[in-house]
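Researcher: Final request for today, and then I'll write up notes for the group meeting. The sequence and the SMILES for guanosine-5'-diphosphate follow.
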Amino acid sequence: MSWWNDADDDDLDDEFDESDVRVRPNPKANRPRTKRRPSHSDAVTARVLGVDRGRYSVLVAEGEPDEREVTATRARELRKTPIVTGDAARVVGDLSGDEGTLGRIVGIEERTSLLRRSADDTDQVERVIVANADQMLLVVAAADPEPRPRLVDRYLIAALDAGIRPLMVITKTDLADPAGFLEHFSGLADLRVFRSSQSDPPVAEIGESLVGHSTVFVGHSGVGKSTLVNALVPDAGRATGHVNAVTGRGRHTSSSTESLRYRSGEGTGWVIDTPGVRSFGLGHVDPENILRAYPDLAEVAAECPRGCSHLPDAPDCRLNEAIDAGDLPVARVDSLQRLLLTFDRRTEW
Ligand SMILES: Nc1nc2c(ncn2[C@@H]2O[C@H](COP(=O)(O)OP(=O)(O)O)[C@@H](O)[C@H]2O)c(=O)[nH]1
Ligand SMILES: [Mg+2]
Ligand SMILES: [Zn+2]
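Model: Predicted protein-guanosine-5'-diphosphate complex:
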């Protein structure tokens, strides 16, 4: 099987490249309409592992002795429905998984989360990239490419807004000391940060946090996502260090998003490698979702005036009052306010 091997994907519905993505806070807003689906009482639910040229690889009987990968098409009535890695698909047809056989996807179960890239200049349609992830591993390089705190803020916001737990790994610590960069995130006390280098990737530590979760790896192209995935999942065979042609719009990496199973003595988890992601569009973020990631601050902010922005200039903001009174750590409120400001300004970078 080589459907994940960076083959150019010409199915427009599923193709994407290094571009903006975001997590939609309300999956219902874009949930495929499956109500009118024909009754397929014989359908089984299968995990979508990846897609290549309109053919889906799905995992049937996950975790059972007869677990198998089946290649499937999608039913005609789902032509307009994005079906992506991580989706729980309802499949019928030949589910033997034998060479040359095909199953058929006839529906998608409701998603718990959605990671999507936002529309850009040439493509007005938002495209779903990953469904049902509950963790996001932000991969940031200490150097080459240079880490950008504000870009990382956007990843954090997208994750927090969707209720996806963010984790961070700093790669290439053999090239530069990430201490200065990491200072930006010291206020996010709950953010787990791993350090990785060429010779010493913290496979066991990261792996431990993957067990029992579906974790999407995101980060700028070239930071070392696929290198990490290959270290975690030895038979993954993800292409690394791939540099593509320069196009009119800049450098693009055409590559696929794929679910891979992490296994250890502790259990299993799902790792989802994505192509390079430049930034997240943050059009519909709800500040209250960000605040939820700071339970101690949320408690104080509950007493704020209605509609309080919680920004440094917000009148009668209880957070600002608490800082002035010395009742809250400044760094932590700063960290929250920086995130709130990031999408408040809708700055592009
Ligand atoms: N020096 C150094 N290079 C790394 C490290 N991790 C990955 N690389 C290199 O960075 C390049 C991009 O890695 P890749 O995994 O393809 O990045 P991706 O685009 O995020 O999937 C490759 O040439 C890797 O060998 C690291 O920790 N240190
Ligand atoms: Mg890669
Ligand atoms: Zn406030």
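Model: Residues 171-172, 174-175, 196-198, 219, 221-227, 240-241, 276 surround guanosine-5'-diphosphate (ligand 1) (CB under 6 Å). The first strand starts at residue 22 and ends at 23.
Researcher: Thanks, that's everything.
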